[in-house]
Amino acid sequence: MFISHLPKLHSHFSIFYSTPKIIITSALLSKSKTTPVSHFSSVTAAANTLLQTPELLQTKNLEIEDVLEKPHVEISVEKLFFPPDTDVSSGSRPLSSRILKGSNIVLSKYAGNAQVEQAEFVKSSVDTEACPSDGLPEFALVGRSNVGKSSLLNSLVRRKKLALTSKKPGKTQCINHFRINDSWHLVDLPGYGYAAAPHEVRTDWAKFTKDYFINRPTLVSVFLLIDASIPAKKIDLDYASWLAENKIPMTIVFTKCDKRKKKKTGGKKPEENLQDFLELIQKFFQTAPPWIMTSSVTNQGRDEILLHMSQLRNYWLKH
Ligand SMILES: Nc1nc2c(ncn2[C@@H]2O[C@H](COP(=O)(O)OP(=O)(O)OP(=O)(O)O)[C@@H](O)[C@H]2O)c(=O)[nH]1
Ligand SMILES: [Mg+2]
């Protein structure tokens, strides 16, 4: 079962907000945590009432106040992502206190049980049919070779080498399933666009991963990784376009957001590259897809992604 991108909720939401822009808090572009404790406690209380997810607040190492935005960056409402079945109008808290840090993702009542307690490698499969058949929901990490898929997987599970990484592109070659908490899968895929690969191999790659996206019934969502330290690449735009066209639910994960040296990164900061990319793909989508900033070096975005995965997964399990 696939989750759609919620076009209906968006128009519903507009009724309640007459101004098109909201101010969202935002550590979006900064890593510092200087907000006073009193603000933290009010956000926690709000999240508790509004989201009705007590398990979220009790989750070890994952405090709600650390994953929500603090207002200082503007994102217009139509650029936010509302997870399915998000009761946008309920509760007294402003929407701005329900957005995951460094993202456009609104936290829903389905968020919870986000902590990774256990992670193990299950198997490497050469095609979709060979993938595990236990029916567990899964999320696939896809992106250009060397974008940081395996590194992100390791960051999410807090292990250095569960998935193998390399400076050389083309390290991951099969569909690799990792079982989390015995209840869901993270899937590491081979990268696309590896220039050194022969043309036939590249074509095969496209065929085999695209077959997986279309024919894997337990795939809850694809996580498309984009390197935010460099300007947008055509192949990434093509991929985003293909996923949108085929209505494959996706989240865009901007990687390497720790790389801030302008000279090495094509003259732009990660957040500038991110804006450019989002503008370029806007035309592919009817409603804004979810996106989030990450770094596997600083672990930026790790808890936020896990919460987002939990809300998609819990919704999927109930529908
Ligand atoms: N600075 C920085 N480097 C990163 C980050 N994520 C990954 N890297 C580096 O990028 C290189 C590639 O990382 P991988 O995780 O192996 O990339 P991959 O997408 O799995 O690559 P393939 O398996 O070849 O498709 C490694 O040298 C990583 O250390 C990040 O967030 N920040
Ligand atoms: Mg890899």
TrEMBL record:
Q: Which CDD domains match?
A: YihA_EngB (cd01876)
The UniProt keywords, alphabetically, are: Cell cycle, Cell division, GTP-binding, Magnesium, Metal-binding, Nucleotide-binding, Septation
Q: Which one of the record's GO molecular function terms can you name?
A: metal ion binding
Q: Which cofactor does it need?
A: Mg(2+)
Question: Which superkingdom does the taxonomy of this entry point to?
Answer: Eukaryota
KW Nucleotide-binding (keyword) present: yes
Q: Which residues form the signal peptide?
A: none
Q: Which GO terms describe its biological process?
A: cell division
- Keyword Acyltransferase assigned to the entry: answer is no
Ranges where the EngB-type G domain occurs = 135-315
Among PANTHER family, the record links this protein to: ENGB-TYPE G DOMAIN-CONTAINING PROTEIN, MSS1/TRME-RELATED GTP-BINDING PROTEIN
Q: Which family does it belong to?
A: Belongs to the TRAFAC class TrmE-Era-EngA-EngB-Septin-like GTPase superfamily. EngB GTPase family.
Query: Which protein, by its recorded name, is this?
Result: EngB-type G domain-containing protein
Question: What species does this protein belong to?
Answer: Solanum verrucosum
